[in-house]
Structure to design on (439 residues):
């Protein structure tokens, strides 16, 4: 391919897209293996989803971690022992800012720069087009590899509900403060962690609250005894024992109208909320089934009931988006689901990877760390011994999906990237062992 006169060739450098938690650990681990790195971040600071100032951040005023501190922190940069078990989102942002400062990552980040196109340039290299979010002309830089860390919780998915509603409808992404709930009748649609957090806040502020869920889920507490529940849940032992522990510490909410789950606890993402059962039992939250249609002031439910909320909040999740890439580069199907080995490595392009595209049953940060270590070692091997790298890729691509992904899950978009973090890390460890010489 002939070079354009305005093309900047960055030689063996790697392009990282996004400076959230996954992008930061990607920069750090690539740099530790000797790569030059340019990270492009469309916002003016680090933090990604955890920076509430960012337009695409899904966090609200009351957002806390739902995974405990030891199972969330990066393995080489612990959170302070004096912090709570489940830190507030402002502390998570502070932690990421400290991480970036400690490892000197900001020197490698271009803020206010958005990646708009990534195209193959031959020989495993990539032409990356970048625009300034403040205006100005585009520029194209050529890189030896690209690591995408743009997150998957920023493009809202709203349910398609027929009819017209005369009240207000917002997605959970637009919910920021409980003041908008005060003295209003509120319907929250969605049974995941976000929906449960919002409906609990509504129970504290709203006049009346309905919680609509399509199916039943397992609602676990944040604590079992005096220990964070995830630390108890992931104690050593066979899978059946861990499942038994979990089943005996979740609330049975069917008496209050919540559907019974039709799947095992391991087959869906854990919902962690100790206050939801309390507010259901106090009558502050009324469980209702799925919504069938809007009708003016009313919302009609699938059981025929009609309710009249002032505000409907749809906590119905997000879709992964890679608008800067042709879908076939990540083997994205018609539903928008990419097919990546370990949810990381592009199968046909060994110098293209994604970090952070997993939904674990514990914290994401440790998984993103080890993913980025594997990517860095993989790219080093590809640069120093391409023949061996090709052999490793061929063998790795034959590893069955069930060896590293959750074996059985509820068949919804929410569970596309679901993994058991222990099994997943064991698989990543086996890959790292194969790449041991790539340092």
């Amino acid at each position: 391919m002939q070079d354009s006169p305005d093309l900047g060739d960055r030689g063996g450098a790697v392009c990282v897209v996004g400076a959230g938690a996954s992008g930061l650990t990607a920069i750090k681990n690539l740099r530790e293996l000797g790569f030059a790195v340019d990270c492009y971040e469309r916002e003016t600071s680090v933090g990604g989803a955890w920076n509430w100032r960012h337009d695409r951040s899904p966090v609200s005023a009351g957002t806390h971690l739902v995974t405990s501190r030891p199972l969330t922190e990066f393995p080489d940069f612990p959170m302070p022992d004096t912090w709570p078990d489940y830190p507030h989102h402002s502390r998570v942002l502070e932690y990421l800012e400290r991480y970036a400062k400690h490892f000197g990552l900001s020197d490698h980040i271009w803020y206010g720069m958005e990646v708009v196109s990534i195209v193959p340039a031959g020989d495993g290299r990539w032409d990356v087009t970048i625009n300034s979010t403040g205006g100005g002309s585009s520029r194209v830089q050529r890189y030896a590899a690209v690591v995408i860390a743009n997150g998957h919780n920023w493009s809202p998915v709203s349910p398609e509900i027929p009819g017209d509603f005369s009240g207000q409808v917002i997605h959970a992404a637009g919910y920021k403060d409980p003041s908008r709930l005060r003295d209003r009748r509120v319907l929250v649609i969605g049974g995941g962690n976000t929906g449960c957090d919002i409906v609990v806040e509504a129970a504290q502020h709203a006049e009346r609250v309905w919680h609509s869920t399509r199916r039943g889920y397992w609602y676990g507490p944040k604590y079992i005894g005096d220990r964070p529940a995830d630390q108890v849940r992931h104690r050593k032992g066979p899978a059946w024992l861990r499942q038994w522990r979990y089943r005996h510490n979740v609330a049975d909410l069917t008496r209050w109208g919540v559907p019974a789950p039709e799947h095992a606890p391991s087959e869906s993402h854990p919902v962690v909320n100790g206050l939801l059962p309390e507010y259901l039992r106090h009558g502050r939250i009324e469980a209702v089934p799925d919504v069938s249609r809007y009708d003016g002031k009313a919302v009609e439910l699938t059981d025929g009931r009609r309710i009249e909320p002032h505000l409907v909040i749809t906590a119905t999740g997000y879709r992964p988006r890679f608008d800067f890439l042709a879908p076939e580069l990540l083997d994205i199907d018609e539903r928008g689901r990419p097919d990546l080995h370990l949810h990381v490595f592009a199968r046909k392009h060994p110098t293209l990877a994604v970090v952070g595209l997993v939904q674990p049953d514990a914290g994401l940060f440790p998984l993103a760390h080890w993913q980025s270590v594997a990517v860095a070692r993989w790219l080093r091997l590809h640069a120093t011994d391409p023949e061996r790298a090709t052999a490793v890729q061929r063998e790795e691509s034959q590893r069955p999906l069930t060896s590293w992904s959750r074996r059985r899950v509820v068949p919804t978009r929410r569970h596309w990237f679901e993994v058991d973090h222990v099994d997943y890390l064991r698989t990543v460890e086996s890959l790292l062992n194969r790449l041991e010489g790539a340092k």
Observations:
- The mean pLDDT is 91.
